[in-house]
Amino acid sequence: MALLDKDGVRLTVDDTVATVTLTNPAKRNAQSPALWRALAEAGRSLPGTVRVVVLRGEGKSFSAGLDRQAFTPEGFEGEPSFLDLARGSDELLDSTIAEYQEAFTWWRRHDIISVAAVQGHAIGAGFQLALACDLRVVADDVQFAMRETSLGLVPDLAGTQPLTSLVGYARALEICATGRFVHAEEAERVGLANLVVPVDELDAAVQDLTTALLAPARDAVIETKALLRAAPSRPYDDQRAAERAAQARRLRDLAGLSD
What we know:
Strand order of the largest sheet: 1-2-3-4-5-7-10
Oligomer: single chain
Distance between the termini: 34 Å
Number of strands: 10
Number of helices: 10
Helix content: 40-55%
């Protein structure tokens, strides 16, 4: 069932699984503010039954990044150009970028697991969208790159934290500062990819992973995800305490003693 289909984004839901598809393969799923608003709306539209969200792009590329039209004086029709935004107040610029970031932040909600199925180009905003997800299954033709610095910009769509968390500061800096491509073998080796498969096996691999993610009890997965997401920022003893509290909730729930 399609719950949303506009501005290059389609959301379909089949009971516990939602699929968000980028639907502009002619432009290699290049991104725009309208697409970002549609992605944010997709997150708000998820029914409570959904446990796994799969993100994919139609065509040969996942997403080639920001549509270069954004950098022209006219920008996108009905949108302020980036040049206009640069001339605005600090408050306007900050609030506008914050709005754009909403497309990239909901994928890590505790009540869902998000899986990016990535093939071909995942550049700039496309790379950051793949990083927004919990897990990444990639085709063997994948080409990740963070090209913002080559445009005199910085990655600002919530991608710097997950990138650094996955590959470490030094490698993240090198990837971003050089703008080089990261291909499939390296992506798997350094932790950007959970799994690499041939292009024609990508859909099947994502389906197998989705089935495995749905097998355990939902509440146990939710609690586990919350523990793991918080672990890097917690002191060891605080994390142990959080584990005990979470396990107590699970045991009481299994015993029928929860509130």
